[in-house]
Write a structure and sequence with these properties.
heterodimer; A: 493 residues; alpha/beta; Amidase signature (AS) enzymes; eight-stranded mixed beta sheet; three-stranded mixed beta sheet; 15 helices; B: 478 residues; alpha+beta; Arc Repressor Mutant, subunit A; nine-stranded mixed beta sheet; elongated
Chain lengths: 493, 478
């Protein structure tokens, strides 16, 4: 094992450690930023984790942060480098969503998540690669090419926040933002040995996130420790007047409760999550992790989510339905790709969209259009909404007896690039354990809990709405007694 | 009696008079430079989200209560999906299955003059689209998104209307109500108040409805009447020629006074409505509804009944005076300020004053003759200072700013001659000058009284009191 410590090279330190180092004057924000930019530069070609880099702006901001620190000014993330998934709008820096249709799109405004991290003092180094419009579980649907998994570059890092996960796993940056509609933060986190937090629906504003499926999309973070995720959640959580679906709920200091013990914590283990479909070795690894938590004082309770098996088909009705409508604005009229030499308005729409969108996005637009069509709405969309209610009820009932639900994040470790691209159904099944939390709007976190054939495995914790604090403390306590999260892929130590 | 029965339902779109748009903070005032009142939300930029302007909820509730409808405790915004260049998001945010106002009614006069109840199916909130500008750009189309996101209340009637006239009467009532409530400026030239008409015909006695055509975007009362009448005649012609009316959307061309097919049922969009996940349901508490109810102004039909009772007006006059709030307020101010007959006040406003305002295209609020000034004129009629005829001359003077009634009467010496001795002399002179007529009158030709009165009025330059003159002549000739 190769575990890192605070005295290690800067790129191996966690966000929390770096914050301490900056505060203690051990290094400057410029030194930190420069060293990470060098690493990014060295590995971008093989990893392809970034779509856009903002080195010059980052260095200018780092200098400013160093100046502020000298005068005692600045926020809690003063001078700390992060990166944003390329579907968060960033004023003046292009936001592509991994799509040709937006390859030259520059947003005139910052997403709320971006603005809040900026005002907390964080420095953006760049925008990360992703599945096109967040539709994918392998990062292969990106117009800018697939991202490779730092643990084995023949493998997919997962998706859709694959660029963010790979960048954090490869120790190019300490933390990244991501979005999770059906597992797009947690699944790549699991496949890259990082921590991925998807907060409760409404916990973090969606304003400025290019919408995929509005009732499921949620912004979150990918880090190397639960502690870092808590630090970042403190900065981004909270109601936003520009997002009606953001929740006006109190925001606890998520770092304050990290030391809460797991003694007496009731952890629900979902029987259905260990059924067929789960790789044996992964299953064993997750069970070992659960035993570790039990040894630390938690109790394991069997729980039943009777309708959880319907979550994938339910998701693949609801999400495409919403996406078919959300993506209508990409019509070539006001922004984004517009086809040349069009004959008329219909030709403008058909060719701009035909040329601008990739195959997976088109598949979902067509599926979504179909399930909302007259004569099919009741059979698909309405029925899916009803099943969604049932799944949500299942979770609520389970949480009457347990504090968190734990299980595998993904059915296997990372799969080969190209392995599933011709088989969308198999690809969709990769999110079988993560989708439920999106359908029910619940918070979930994936933490690294072992390696199978030298590839990381993720332990997923799902909690009741707005119970991020207990997920984070449980994960943090697990990371106090294990060091899986400290392990870096061999080529990136 | 025609063997055809006409069935009409109207969908009225009224822009709500909020300061900002329904889902963004942009101003919604009319006539700004293209695309200067369109924010990123109105432009449908990636990542932006709609946030409901709660003012529209209050306005919709006011309308609902004014037409005796139910204000829904829970209503939902839905997306209506279709592609059009002036629809930036590729969908319109509207309400579909659960609208904010359900099941109202109002009363109109039918063609026979009887009171008739028209049911209102629903009224729902939605956003207006932008405008495509076709004529200013050679070979291409411009898009102005200033109007995009303007709040609309779409008011849908049941197919209870049976003629173009009834349709117009209904539309006028709605127009009057939204302006009373001050939830819309009702400006039809600017498109603040427009309607689509669903028109069908069937044989008298037939139970099932005929196939309807929807005539789009009618933006004046006159066009509504003309378009519907054209459509009725067209449909009857089709059926009488053994043809079949097809379900379709038609556009009214006011230049040619005809409707033209826009798209057939087969070409109609499948709008794929579904609840908008970006917006929460509108939840309305009973206490809010009660608060809105208390804030309602007196409505046209209530005011009309009150005017009849309080000012002894004929129903027709009361209806005219209560069409708009400013007109009703003007009337009531005059009626209260004058010592004279409130019915005469009504006649002056409906007659001379309205004619004057129409001629000069002036709103009642900007009338050159104020209510107090008009009351001053009416008082001089009542106290016999001037006759009704002279009053018209004084009124003309007032309208051109010559001063108050009293000032003009004094300046021009228009007071009536009420001095009996002075009139006596004139009457005597007239009788002396017309012996033949005097003889005829005395022989029983009493109609000649008018002749004598006319002669006296002529001699006095109209300043004698006709009633008094009448009396004097009768006395002298008896």
């Amino acid at each position: 094992m190769t575990a890192s410590k605070a005295s290690d090279a800067l790129h191996l330190q966690t966000l929390t450690e770096l914050a301490r180092g900056l505060a203690g004057g051990e290094f400057s924000s410029r030194e930190l930023t420069e060293s990470l930019l060098e690493r990014i530069d060295a590995h971008q070609k093989s990893l392809n984790a970034f779509i856009t880099l903002t080195a010059d702006e980052a260095l200018a901001e780092a200098d400013l942060a160093d100046k502020n620190r000298a005068t005692g000014a600045g926020g809690p993330l003063q001078g700390l480098p992060i990166v944003h998934k390329d579907l968060f709008c960033t004023a003046g820096v292009r936001t592509t969503c991994g799509s040709k249709i937006l390859q030259d799109f520059v947003s005139p405004y910052d997403a709320t998540v971006v603005a809040r991290l900026k005002s907390a003092g964080a420095i953006m180094l760049g925008k990360t690669n992703m599945d096109e419009f967040a539709m994918g579980s392998s990062n292969e649907t990106s117009f800018f090419g697939a991202v490779t998994n730092p643990w084995d570059q023949k493998m997919s890092p997962g998706g859709s926040s694959g660029g963010s996960a790979a960048a954090v796993a490869a120790r190019l940056v300490p933390a990244a933002t991501g979005t999770d509609t059906g597992g797009s933060i947690r699944q790549p986190a699991a496949l890259t040995g990082t921590v991925g937090l998807k907060p409760t629906y409404g916990r973090v504003s969606r304003f400025g996130m290019v919408a995929f499926a509005s009732s499921l999309d949620q912004a979150g973070v990918i880090t190397r420790s639960a502690e870092d995720a808590a630090l970042l959640l403190n900065a981004v959580a909270g109601v936003d007047p520009r997002d009606s679906t953001s929740a006006d709920q109190p925001i606890p200091d998520y770092t304050a409760t990290l030391s809460d013990s797991v003694k007496g914590l009731r952890i629900g283990v979902v029987r259905q999550h260990f059924d067929e479909g789960l790789d044996d070795e992964c299953g064993k690894t997750v069970k070992t992790a659960l035993a570790t938590l039990e040894d630390a004082g938690a109790s394991l309770v069997d729980v039943d989510l009777p309708n959880i098996g319907l979550s994938v088909p339910t998701y693949y009705v609801v999400a495409p339905a919403e996406c078919s409508s959300n993506l209508s604005r990409f019509d070539g009229v006001r922004f984004g790709h517009r086809a040349d030499n069009v004959k008329d308005i219909l030709d403008l729409y058909c060719r701009s969209r035909g040329e601008g969108f990739g195959a997976e996005v088109k598949r979902r637009i067509m599926t979504g259009t179909y399930v909302l069509s007259a004569g099919y709405y009741d059979a698909y969309y309405l029925k899916a909404q009803k099943v969604r209610q049932l799944i949500s009820r299942d979770f609520n009932q389970a949480f009457e007896n347990v504090d968190v639900i734990a299980g595998p994040t993904a059915p296997t470790t990372a799969f080969r690039l190209g392995e599933k691209t011709d088989d969308p159904i198999t690809m969709y099944l990769n999110d079988i354990y993560t989708i439920g939390a999106n359908l029910a709007g619940l918070p979930g976190i994936s933490v690294p809990c072992g390696l199978v054939k030298k590839m990381p495995v993720g332990l997923q914790l799902v909690g009741p709405a707005f119970a991020e604090a207990s997920l984070l403390s449980c994960a943090h306590q697990y990371q106090q007694i294990t060091d899986w999260h400290r392990q870096a892929p061999e080529a990136f130590r | 009696m025609s063997r055809w029965e006409v069935v009409i339902g109207l969908e009225i779109h009224t822009q709500l008079a909020t300061n900002s748009k329904i889902f963004s903070g942009s101003s919604r005032s009319y006539g700004a430079e293209p695309n200067t009142q369109a924010s990123l939300v109105d432009l449908g930029y990636p990542g932006v989200l709609p946030v409901l302007n709660v003012e529209v909820v209050r306005m919709a509730a006011m309308f609902g209560l004014a037409v005796n409808a139910t204000v829904a405790k829970r209503s939902i915004f839905a997306r209506k999906n279709y592609f059009y260049p002036d629809l930036p998001k590729g969908y319109q945010i509207s309400q579909y299955e659960l609208p904010i106002v359900v099941g109202g009614e109002l009363f109109i006069r039918d063609d026979a003059g009887d009171e008739k109840r028209i049911r209102i199916t629903r009224a729902h909130l939605e956003e207006d689209a932008g405008k495509s500008v076709h004529d200013e750009f050679e070979g291409s189309t411009g898009v102005d998104l200033n109007r995009a996101g303007t709040p609309l209340l779409e008011i849908v009637s049941e197919p209870d209307l049976r003629s173009a006239k009834e349709a117009v009467a209904y539309m006028r009532k709605i127009h009057s109500i939204v302006r009373y409530l001050e939830i819309s400026d009702g400006n039809m030239q600017e498109g603040s108040f427009r309607c689509d008409a669903n028109v069908s015909v069937r044989q008298v006695g037939q139970v099932e409805l005929g196939t309807r055509a929807e005539v789009k975007n009618l933006n004046s009362f006159r066009f509504v009447e003309k378009a519907i009448n054209f459509e009725i005649a067209r449909q009857i012609d089709v059926i009488e020629d053994a043809g079949v009316v097809v379900q379709e959307t038609r556009l009214y061309d006011s230049d040619k006074d005809e409707t033209r097919s826009m798209r057939s049922k087969e070409e109609a969009n499948d709008y794929r409505y579904f609840p908008d996940p970006d917006l929460l349901p509108i939840e309305i508490e009973d206490s809010f509804v009660e608060e809105v109810r208390r804030s309602l102004p007196e409505l046209p039909h209530v005011k009309c009944a009150r005017f009849i009772a309080e000012y002894a007006l004929k129903e027709a006059d009361a209806e005219i005076l209560t069409v708009s709030r400013p007109l009703a307020d003007f009337y009531e101010e005059v009626a209260k300020a004058t010592a004279g007959d409130s019915r005469i006040a009504a006649n002056w406003i409906i007659g001379d004053l309205s004619a004057l305002l129409n001629r000069d295209n002036i709103d009642i609020q900007d009338s050159p003759i104020t209510p107090t000034a008009l009351a001053g004129l009416l008082d001089r009629i009542t106290d016999d200072t001037i006759s009704g005829k002279i009053a018209k001359e004084v009124f003309d003077g007032m309208s051109t700013g010559e001063g108050s009634a009293d000032e003009i009467i004094a300046a021009k010496g228009l007071q009536q001659i009420t001095d009996v001795s002075a009139l006596d002399a004139i009457v005597a002179a007239v009788i002396d000058a017309n012996p033949a007529q005097v003889a005829d009158y005395r022989a029983g030709k009493e109609k000649l009284l008018g002749f004598f009165v006319g002669q006296v009025m002529k001699e006095t330059g109209g300043k004698a009191n006709p009633g008094q003159v009448n009396q004097l002549i009768k006395q002298k000739l008896s």
